[in-house]
Each structure stands twice: as C-alpha cells, then as structure tokens.
Amino acid sequence: MTPKVAAAAPAWQDWRLPVDAAQQPDLAAAPDGSLLLSWIEGDTDTQHLRFARWRDGRWSAPKSIVVDGGIGNVADMPHVRQTADGALWATWLRRIGEGHARDLVLARSVDDGRTWSAPQSVNLDGTATEHGFASLWPEGRDAIGIAWLDGRETGEHAMHGMQAGATMLRTAVFDARLSRRDEKAIDTVTCDCCQTDVAAVDGAPLLVYRDRLPGEVRDIALLRRDAAGWSAPRQLHADGWAIEACPVNGPAIAARGRDVAVAWYTMHSTRPMVRYAASRDGGMRFDAPVELAAGEQVLGRVDVARDAKGTWVLWLEEDAQGQALQLARVANGAAHPDATRTLARLVGRGRGTGWPRLVSAGDGLHAVWTDVIDGVPHLRGRQLH
C-alpha cells in the first residue's frame, strides 16, 4: 500500500513591484481581474501619490495622481479603485492648517490615470477636524460609494458653541460627474482612527469598522445596506475590549459570492489577539470567531482575502527578533486554519511598517507591505499562483 504523502505548503514567490523606496501601499482588484497598486513617495511635507496596474504578469508604467503634503499616513493610506465603466477613482487626505486636521478628497480619471479631475471634497462640513479612513465600493456601472470616519463633532464649533463630541461614520455616493447623493451618518459614535473596510455582497456593500460603545468598549461592528437602506449597526462579536483611546487597528472583510470572512485585532484581559469569523449567508449570521494568534507579540494590522479554496488572513507580529508577517489559511468548510506560516521577516519595527495588504485576483494571491531599512521605507511583495 502506497503511503500517503503530506501536501506541500503553497509556494509563495517574491513579487517584484514597480517601485522600491515608497510607503503606504494599497492594493485592489479591478473588474477585469487586474490589480491596482498605489503608494506614496517622499516625506510628510511633499508626498507624491502614484499607482501602477498589474495585468498579464507585468506592471504598467507608474502614473502620478497628486503631489502635496500630508496626503496620507502609515495608518490612513490613499486608495485607487475602478468601476465597470473603466473609470478610476482615487481618494487621499488634504491638510487643513498645521495640525492633524484633514479633509478627505476624491478624484476621477477616464483615461486610465493619465489625467485626473479636480479633487472634490468628500466632507463638506468645513471644520478643522480629522476626516479619513475611507472605504469605497462600486455603485452600478459608473458611480462609487464611499464611507469615512468624520470628526466634524470632535472640535468646538464656534457657530454653534458646541463642545467636542464623537467621531461618526458617514457615507455618500458620487456619480460620474462627481455629484453626490444619499449622504448620511450611519453611526454617530465610532472609534476615532481605526481603518474601515467593505465588501460587495449581492451587489450591495457590507461595511465593517471599530465601534465605540458605552463604557469605551471598542468592538467590531457591521453595517449592511439593502433596498430599504442601511441597517442599524450590530456587533460582529462581543469581545468586550474596553480601552479609553483608539487602538488604530481596524478590521478587514472579504467576500466571494455569499461567503464572507472578517478578521480583526482585539484584546481580552490585556492579551492581544487576531480573530476571524465566517458567514455563509452573505453576512446575515457569522460563526463563532476563531482565534488565529494570541500573545504580546501580536500587533494586528490585519487584512483578509478569499479565493476558491478558502480564506487567507494576514497580520503582523513583533518580538525580540523583529517583525514578522504572518499568514493563515482556512479552507472552505473548515472551522480552523489548516496552515499558518511566516510570509516574510521585516527589518523595520514599530508603526512605521504600516499596514500590509492582501488581495485575491484572477492570477492568484498577492501581498504587499512596507519595510523600513536604515530609516527609509521600502515596498515589498509576494505572490502565490
């Protein structure tokens, strides 16, 4: 009888990127299966937002979107997305004064990024407060939906004499002329600076973010939109993490058909951990969460992707030897990961390494991240065909 041979671990390969000295990468799949990689070159005072497309095993020449100061930071990177009509959409931050205040802006390109429209402010409140941490999704063929964290109530408003309030989650839709509609607040009290994320399920957005509940509980919440509008926020799981500050560590979501996966960072009794939960009915119900990693070494900064075989979760850890990019795979129908591995070891430490990105596309899985070597940020990538 021939003995069984254990299946070999998937063979990840280095993925050569179109830029080296850069930071704050974002990666997204386009409707045709190509990938859009955006990044920032330069320092805080003069930042250059650029992007390139991966198609048929090669990169396009990088193109410029904007040059300005303070258009992104290690936790709140710009985004580039494509709608079915071929238009590209880009978001970034626009500095207000000398402090941390930022507006969120949106621009559109109809010639594959060679030229861009004048940037349109997403938030129109006119307050010198923080806005950002956006998520975008297609609205039909030629419009884009956007959700963002909005700090308009967090400063003192001279015109109303109001004192500081809470960060809120707002959403709007922009058409091909950059005209807005359906702007509204969908949660009026949220965590201040954790990333949001969105997945399209049955053509409608399913949005995850870190909420802010009584007692300063900062657990993950989910909002879905249907023909009746946005649902009320509901907790994905009652972690009960009470913290009197924003942990700057948002959730990630991915969907394939009606199979949905969410991953997030939390703490329980001062024990950091990464959790994952799955839904098979488009996000209506989720299985009990699975703990993928726990311990003082866990930094979080998660991303998640789904392919035909299951779910992949990416996160960062840091110990005495340095930072490591960890990857877990949960096969379809499985309750727990069937493989966890170190995808890469980093030279950099601390928050400067930013947030890694993971995307499933037609030609496989792709991961990008920032490493910091001798004080200089560099982009790195790996792929699995």
TrEMBL record:
This is BNR repeat-like domain-containing protein. CDD domains: Sialidase_non-viral. It comes from Cognatilysobacter xinjiangensis.
